[in-house]
Amino acid sequence: MPETVGFSFLPKLERFHELRRSALGVRITRYALGSVFAAATSAIVFAILFVFNVGTTTDSICAFTAGAIPNWFLNRRWAWRRRGRPALGREVFGYALTSIISLVLTSLATAWTKAHVQSIPAHYGIRMILVTGSYLAVFAVLFVVKFGLYEFWVFSEESRIRAALRSWGLMPAVKVRPERTGVPVVNTDQAP
Asked: 30-40 burial string, b = 16+ CB within 10 Å, else e?
């Protein structure tokens, strides 16, 4: 007798609900909601500036900044539950670096799109929709990449990327020597 297909999707649905309730699932959900808020804020600012014929690079910078500032607070405090003073090298530099790369990519995408839609009449609003759409398309593409960077580097307790680079010999290990009062520190790294 042939097997009946039945409800073969139920185990997958149960696994989805388990993931959604896990700490990772909560972070993904909160990151997604923060990203939607940031993207909506950015898209509104970008579209308004584009209508007023501000250049696409300036549009991208202003719109990106309008979304990046609340996104920092939403990601750090709400999604990753980080409190206190941010780690300058990892959190601030890492977030700034991912933001700058995202900004450059959005600026390039919108400038390219604007150059290719100039033949469409402006009064239809299609140019604004297409250029703003290219801005949001970059956000969509970078969504997963940025989550990975935030999860494993920027907002992690300890950078797993740094450990991986050290294990591959691409980053020197830093030796931390505790200071003891009255005990001289001997540097064993240098030859006599």
From this structure: bbeebbeebbe
**Mean of pLDDT over the chain:** 80
d(CA 118, CA 55): 13
- pLDDT for 13 beyond 90: no
Query: Tell me, what's the pLDDT at 1?
Result: 47
**How much of the chain exceeds pLDDT 90, in percent?**
26
Helix or strand holding residue 163 (H, E): helix 160-167
Give residue 90's Cα distance to chain centre: 13
DSSP state of 98: H
Asked if 94 and 148 count as a contact pair (C-beta separation under 8 A), the reply is no
| pLDDT computed for residue 135 by the predictor | 84
Contacts by 51-56 with C-beta closer than 8 Å and gap 24+?
51/128, 56/107, 56/110, 56/111, 56/114, 56/131
**C-alpha span between 18 and 12 (Å, rounded):** 10
**Most distant CA atoms of the chain, gap in Å:** 84
Amino acid making up residue 144: V
Closest CA to 32 of 95, 75, 94: 75
Find tokens 């450990």 and name the residue. Answer: 163
Question: How many H-runs (helices) and E-runs (strands) does the chain carry?
Answer: 6, 0
User: Average pLDDT for residues 33-54, to the nearest whole number?
Assistant: 91
**Residue-level length of the chain:** 192
What number is the average pLDDT over the span 39-47?
A: 90
